[in-house]
């Protein structure tokens, strides 16, 4: 192939890709309420055996995935650990901490293409609850946009992760705040899908009739009704921890949440 033909073919491919992302995908999102594609990793990375064993032992969601989706999941964990700094405060950062924290974030965002966000750049871990200078109070975890940090008490993170059906999961809760903030500001396809469905979800917090339906069922803990941010985080905890109960009690709300994060059954 001559240089001129190569250049012509190259720019033709670039034009085609631009057409897909600027014209075809917005139409696809509008019609099907999800991005054109989610997973595409030309140079997929695999976890070390010791890292994968942590998932096998301690991450039920991973074990339900198909072989193909497990590969996607592992690649995303590696990308997460490479992007964000883990900082221990009076505690040593371990491989288990990295894998379980990264796995929680990847699980929450598994239906999104652009899952690594720039709202935070570090994970700060304390042994147990810690004193936060933000509001002069003890915390179990927080998302601090000003410091670009997600902070966890490891004791409370691991309790929430290990208890599979109490609907309290510190990792999911704080990462839900991150996702919420990101999708309010971003215009990528996943964020657009999230924001559209979030408008349907938040009606259950704002609308007195819908809100009354929730409180009468008494499925969500009271903290969900603190504000819209906590409402979203709490219902996402319930969505992942007791999905069958959620779906049976509030099927329409469950469908909105599933659409919001483009959730698909793991297997």
From TrEMBL:
InterPro entries found in the cross-reference section: MtfA_fam, MtfA_N
GO molecular function, one term: aminopeptidase activity
CDD domains assigned: Peptidase_M90-like (cd20170)
Gene Ontology CC annotation, any one: cytosol
PANTHER family for this protein: MTFA PEPTIDASE (PTHR30164), PROTEIN MTFA (PTHR30164:SF2)
Stated name of the protein: Zinc-dependent peptidase
UniProt source species: Flavobacterium petrolei
Lineage, uppermost ranks: Bacteria, Pseudomonadati, Bacteroidota, Flavobacteriia, Flavobacteriales
